[in-house]
Prior knowledge:
The protein is an all-beta fold. Helices cover 1% and strands 48% of the residues. It has one helix spanning 464-467; strands spanning 2-4, 16-20, 23-27, 33-34, 36-42, 49-55, 72-80, 83-90, 95-101, 112-114, 122-126, 129-137, 143-150, 162-165, 174-181, 184-191, 199-205, 213-214, 231-232, 237-241, 247-255, 269-277, 283-285, 294-296, 325-326, 334-336, 340-344, 357-362, 368-375, 380-388, 391-399, 405-413, 416-424, 429-436, 440-447, 450-458, 474-480, 488-498. A hairpin with a 2-residue loop joins strand 32 (405-413) and strand 33. The longest helix has 4 residues, at 464-467. The protein starts with a strand and ends with a strand.
Amino acid sequence: MKYQNPVLRGMYPDPSVCRYQDKYYMVCSTFQYFPGVPLFESDDMINWKQIGHCLTRPSQVELKDIRSSGGIFAPTILCHNGRFYMVTTNDSFAQNFYVYTDDIYGEWSEPILVEQDGIDPSLFFEGEKTYFISNGSDDKGIGCIQMCEIDIVTGKMLTPSKILWQGTGGRFLESPHLYRFGEYYYLMEAEGGTEYGHMANYARSKFIWGPYESYPNNPVLTNRNLGGYQLQAAGHGDIIEDIHGNWWFLHLAFRQIHKWHAFHHLGRETCLVPLHWQEDGWFTMGTDGTSRLEFELPENISFAKQKLSYEKTFENLSTKTDWCFLRTPANENYRFTEHALELCGTKVTLSEPSSPTFAAIRQTEFDLTLTCDIECSKQECGISFYMDEMHHYEIAAKPDGTGNTIVFVRQTIGCISQENTKIIENNTKVSISVVADAEQYHFYLVENSERTHLTDAYTRYLSSEVAGGFTGVMIAFYAVNPGETKEWSRFSALSIQHKETE
């Protein structure tokens, strides 16, 4: 039986997973997007269903005017004595904190701060003690993994931070997770930068405070030498044992757009590889230490049929789980109905590091066909393929003041912006279509079921290699109104169909 990677597609980076009873729960990073930290549930770790978010209230997370790819970094989820904990960093404020819940389907607590610095924090429970782990640096500025004991009720540090391990020498030491398997404590981390040199490493010790011995064959997982392979940047992840006694590593990776074109714009995604224990207490991962697009499993392991990307419509998108917003949204500017989305624009544009009227879902496949009807009223509105405020493409409409509608495609790449326009006479409702493949977006105006080609745009200019940062392309419905009166635009008849990876 086979399954395909990524198991969670689109911008779902930095996965962490835990098991409670017969189900698995996973969280991922969200950076400048709100709500923060999507929460998923699964019966088999192949098919994941989002059940909510951990950070759903502004009191839990400050995102106002933060930079793109700032905000919420690398969460970790654990369950201890029936209580779930999610620990993370608001990197824009150098703030480590955790929240908790006794009802995985309910709301999470207000944040509890921890004074230990660094990012990518994790918790480890043993007996009555709680340990807090994060990356950091020593007094010479060399990267390390550090740990202290904390009071789990208050977050107060009970011991000074102590360096556990300084990794294998790769740059950007991150993603520390501590486990106890048998007689050893295992310390997992990632190095090399969350890009083409990314890798996962680990060490072990019989004592929680160390010293830790590096696995002799580190990195235990990396695709850095698989030049031209679509799946790259395998690294940052979390270990889990399933209910049948099989072991797995859930990790991030991304799909590059072409064998010879090293660009990725869908963001870092979530992949799954088998973990194999050796007789000497070390373990290996994946296929000869690499992550692959497809894995064949032993006959005694079975999963439900894997469901990848599906057609998205206003009718089947959930306001609770599918939609996200930039930084701190003004809720009064959004109306979600059964068959449509209505937006009230403000003066804030997509090119500002602020909170425009912007409701988005993740782009999850290279190949897609999007169609939608747009009624712009007296403001600009449309659909953006959005990486950040300096890198985004829009197909949109706006009134020209004479009863006609201007339909345009705007391409913003850094400090350069250009538009291709077409005027529609005596019609405030327009139909648009976007057809995308791995390398280009193709934009169309639809009139009487006939498509008029407007322009094309290269995906590479929305990639992390060009734009920088840690996010991926979002399909965003937006509105901008420079005027003083409140105006509402309406989006309807949405269909986003995906061609799944074979």
